[in-house]
Amino acid sequence: MPGGSAMDIETRIAALPCWRGPVTLEPLAGGMTNRNLLARAGGERFVVRLGEDIPVHGVMRFNELAASRAAHAAGLSPEVVHAEPGLMVLRFVAGTTLTSAMVREPARLPGLVDIVRRCHREIPRHLRGPVLSFNVFHVARDYIATLRATGRYDSVGLDADARRAAELERRVGPIDLVFGHNDLLAANLIDDGARLWLIDWDYAGFNSPLFDLGGLASNNGFDEDHQRAMLALYFGAPADDALRRRYRAMTCASLLRETLWSMVSEATSTVAGVDFAAYTADNRARFETAWASLDP
């Protein structure tokens, strides 16, 4: 955690009031915006999430905490057992963290759509206190401004991204508002053998349902048939041409946002061991493919 050595962190965690008995810690893999530890205490397992606010990415820990608590109350996410500035302790979920290949398995699609729909519709009933919105087009504009300020990137390329973001916003048009997870990577889904869990609420906020649907598809390599089936399951009927066009534009916007997120991370992140340049290149290529495939 920022501002302390590994020993300082372990001492702080060991002194938390939520433990019943001595605590042992070991690192958990994953996490681009936080550090995760597995804690064992009193015969139980917990996840300790360490991380400060990251304003450049819109990650505010008060918002993550509110979303995490509401997601648990809605039955989607593990319980938050302790929270304080820079630190959150959750119950450990024993299960398999999904991969993109697993997310694409046709038999999983109804369960995936169900948990996304429940996130959108049920979490708002349990939210307490102030929470954020997540407007991908505002996020894109802000990222582009941040990238301009670094002086590291070609202004012509950033101008092109800004124009395309504006065009995608026009194509999406007015939106319905739900509470989105906004980071539907396979690694944020766990199958415990009986049900799915949705974790990691760093980017949660009120948003269009199309963003989560587009992110689920683009992050996990859904083909056209899989996307049509997903939309039909979510909306209860096959998508008409107008909805498909809006969905495709939002999916493209989700890829642009991921590209810009990675470019900003290249310039600002202090997380070790992450090849942001390769992640940028991969997402840029997928964005360009999606952009080229949009209807004229």
Q: Biggest sheet, open or closed, and with what strands and sense?
A: 5 strands, antiparallel
- The helix-and-strand class reads alpha+beta
Principal-axes shape call: globular
Written as H for each helix and E for each strand, in order along the chain, the element string is HEEEHEEEHHHHEEEEHHHH
Number of helices: 10
Strand arrangement, major sheet: 1-2-3-5-4
- Radius of gyration, in Å, reads 19 Å
Number of E strands: 10
Query: What percentage of the residues does DSSP assign to strands (E)?
Result: 5-15%
Oligomer: single chain
Mean pLDDT: 94
Helix content: 40-55%
Query: Could you give the distance between the termini?
Result: 48 Å
Q: Regions with pLDDT < 50 over 5+ consecutive residues? A: none
Task: Record the SSE blueprint.
Layout (H helix, E strand, L loop, with lengths): L5 H9 L8 E6 L6 E7 L2 E7 L10 H13 L6 E5 L2 E5 L4 E2 L2 H4 L5 H18 L9 H15 L4 H18 L5 E3 L8 E3 L4 E3 L6 E3 L1 H12 L3 H12 L5 H28 L7 H17 L4
Antiparallel strand pairs: 1-2, 2-3, 3-5, 4-5, 6-8, 7-10, 8-9
Could you characterize what this model shows?
This protein is an alpha+beta fold. It is 49% helix and 15% strand. A five-stranded antiparallel beta sheet has the order 1-2-3-5-4, with helices on both faces. The chain has a three-stranded antiparallel beta sheet with strand order 6-8-9, with helices on one face. It is globular, with a radius of gyration of 19 Å. It starts with 5 loop residues before the first helix and ends with a helix. The mean pLDDT is 94.
